[in-house]
């Protein structure tokens, strides 16, 4: 029997797993997809919010500000990119100024440091490409940007290094209370556990509602995004938000830690919890908004568009804690923006609750650091040369847009919780994420995956079962052209 | 690593032609760098024929065409490195490259020829909405899977883009037993050759849907269907005209982009019209001693012209190495303007004193038209006029101007299309 079973290997589930791995306990994370970071965590703005958006006194506000402060040291421990680039909330007319003032006061009440309102001239000096219509902005220097893939993957890898087990392609269907804990029924069979952490993203309401007297309702709220090629440089250095509305923080323009520019998200409420398709209307609305904030955005340099689903709980609040109706069942639900930012604090909070419940003891041999995949681009030429001498695979460039070598791809596949699919390699190394979007290197990455996994090329998937990338050429078996 | 005078970046048709031409022009210290494990570039996966009609007056397959130029390089014993990626070209023409055997190495070259080719435009460049499942590939990737890896990208296929690459991909997939449901083209006409429409579509009863585009992709894990719709004159989809094809694959052949990241690092100025370097009559970029040829310079329709351009840069680089940089301060530098339906020209400017016997201009037109004149003006004076029965954006035009016509005193050369 496990001590803890975590449903969902998104950023919340992995943060809980990593924090709980400080304790002596048997911990299992399950996910219905073939990898970590396959739901809400993989498609979002990649922003570390300062913390002025959430209502003062809310759990969201508290965990946002705490998470923001924790992110710096965590990023160092986990060897992942993170940059405090600061954010602007811009307003387009004098009538909107009270909205800015309200955010400033809210932020101060939430404990966000160094907030101030900037006027037109100062704004222009800092961000020359801001629209001429912008009259003032709230500046939050503690806001940052992060790579949500590597954050989630690094949390999971670190948890695994500390003994946490992961099972993928394992979907929880039902949870039953039994003596001393729960049986979680999955499509791979039942799993017994003393406690359950419900970190199931857009599906968290379904598991909560098995036990909770007060029902939760989570709406998948779709956000469409576009990504610009690195080649255009950064139109803005900081993250630029419009004033928030009831649908959220509005459409932002922001740099990514990898030097792209991200535009988005829209906010479209859906019923279907799997509907991550972009729509023409969504993309159009998004581009119209983005170009309102920042002048001359090079929209011809869009290299991809995508959509993610936020797990929007009706009360727009994080629902974290033990259910009184089902002791040992812990919710980690309604984790929408600023969920990514809050994840380090969410992990700590949940781990605190669960470890107290189970009376867990801290390990003495907790490994707090994780080493990322070595990127030769970060080395001096001398060090790179030495690396290739030692490991020739780093001398073979596979993805030419992002200059990703075979050495990095092999590391991504061979490390614990390694990549099993093209998307897995992509999210760990950035191969296929550049301007040709894998047109050149996908087949080469597929060949490496096939070789490493010991499967034929036709068994290599984009993202797990059902997503095979190629089919067998059975032309000759069928007798060729004359058949 | 030995000392080299000339480094050629890319061992496809442009780089191969450049290497042997530079050798023949006297440059014996050339290093040819190729990122793949064989020479020939994209030709190696182009199994269809039709290559080399201009140069060899016979129809060769891609690998056969490549082989002729590879042989020239081997015959001359030109040093080369395969599996080698150039990671930087510095403005002082130091080339930094890496491979498994030599590791990371730097070569301070006297001249560099850029021959990196191009990339295919991805789905994102068109902002096609829908899911992002397995089964959406560029035509080039599909070709590689079929011809090099021996697998198929899928069995029920829709192709977007009816240029020659899209058409040839449709035939290849059909020959391999896949069902190609339609080739979809945004424009009201195909950019491909007429014979390709006949041989690749009509012969296989594949419908060509002109003035249509892809408006939705369904399937979360693998493509389940592709929906197309007719577009209006502004290329906006018309509601009510949707056709949904159940299929497992969408192949995109929606344009090529010259691959100029290394050119940028070298400080080479690029043209917004071609996305390739701005070059003079010697195909020399804004950085003296750095030359460009083939698809990295501008996207070609026929490989024969790529080879010719490669040879021209090979000779020019050899001359540069032999004679040193031309003292540009003393030379008249005349811009070449593309006007009246001409989208761009290569070169973009020229120095009349440096033209040897004639100046070759290559260009593309912006739209289809019939019975128009290609005209060139030196200042106000018409120096060239040629009637063309048909002009199309898919076809690269080439004209040659004699040196005698280029020596007058004028401030610009203008290439334009005129009705009469």
Structure at a glance:
The complex is a heterodimer of chains A (483) and B (420). With 483 residues, chain A is of the alpha+beta class.
Structural account:
The complex is a heterodimer of chains A (483) and B (420). Chain A contains twelve helices and 23 strands. Chain A has 483 residues and is α+β, with helices and mostly antiparallel strands. In chain A, a hairpin with a 2-residue loop joins β11 (181-186) and β12 (189-198). The model of chain A has no long low-confidence stretch (mean pLDDT 96). Chain B has eight helices and 27 strands. In chain B, α1 packs parallel to α3, α4 (139-149) runs parallel beside α5 (164-175) and α5 (164-175) runs parallel beside α6.
The CATH class of the domain at 376-459 in chain A is identified as Mainly Alpha
Main pleated-sheet profile of chain B: 5 strands, parallel
- CA-based gyration radius of chain A: 23 Å
Largest beta-sheet details of chain A: 8 strands, mixed
- Quaternary: heterodimer
Return the CATH class of the largest domain in chain B.
Alpha Beta
Structural class of chain B: alpha/beta
How many helices of chain A? The count is 12
How far is the first residue's CA from the last residue's CA of chain B?
59 Å
The CATH superfamily of the largest domain in chain B is identified as: FAD/NAD(P)-binding domain
Shape of chain B: globular
Low-confidence stretches of chain A: none
- The pLDDT mean of chain B sits at 96
- Give the structural class of chain A: alpha+beta
Distance between the termini of chain A: 57 Å
Q: What is this structure's SSE topology?
A:
The complex is a heterodimer of chains A (483) and B (420).
Chain A: E1 2-7, H1 11-20, E2 27-30, E3 47-48, H2 59-78, E4 82-83, E5 87-91, H3 97-110, E6 116-119, H4 120-126, E7 136-140, E8 144-146, H5 148-161, E9 165-167, E10 172-178, E11 181-186, E12 189-198, H6 204-208, E13 218-228, E14 239-242, E15 252-255, E16 261-264, E17 268-269, H7 280-293, E18 302-313, E19 319-323, E20 326-333, H8 339-358, H9 381-390, E21 397-399, E22 404-405, H10 406-414, H11 422-429, H12 442-453, E23 471-472
Parallel strand pairs in A: 1-2, 1-12, 2-9, 5-14, 12-20
Antiparallel strand pairs in A: 3-8, 4-8, 5-7, 6-7, 10-11, 11-12, 13-16, 13-17, 13-18, 15-16, 19-20, 21-22
Chain B: E1 6-9, H1 13-24, E2 30-33, H2 53-56, H3 62-75, E3 80-81, E4 85-89, E5 94-99, E6 103-108, E7 111-114, E8 118-120, E9 136-138, H4 139-149, E10 151-152, E11 156-160, H5 164-175, E12 179-184, H6 194-201, E13 208-209, E14 212-218, E15 225-230, E16 243-246, E17 249-252, E18 256-258, H7 261-265, E19 290-292, H8 303-323, E20 334-338, E21 342-346, E22 349-350, E23 358-365, E24 369-378, E25 381-391, E26 397-402, E27 413-418
Parallel strand pairs in B: 1-2, 1-7, 2-3, 7-19, 9-17, 11-12, 11-17, 12-13, 20-27
Antiparallel strand pairs in B: 4-5, 5-6, 8-18, 14-15, 15-16, 20-22, 21-23, 23-26, 24-25, 24-27
Helix pairs in contact in B: 1-3, 1-8, 4-5, 5-6
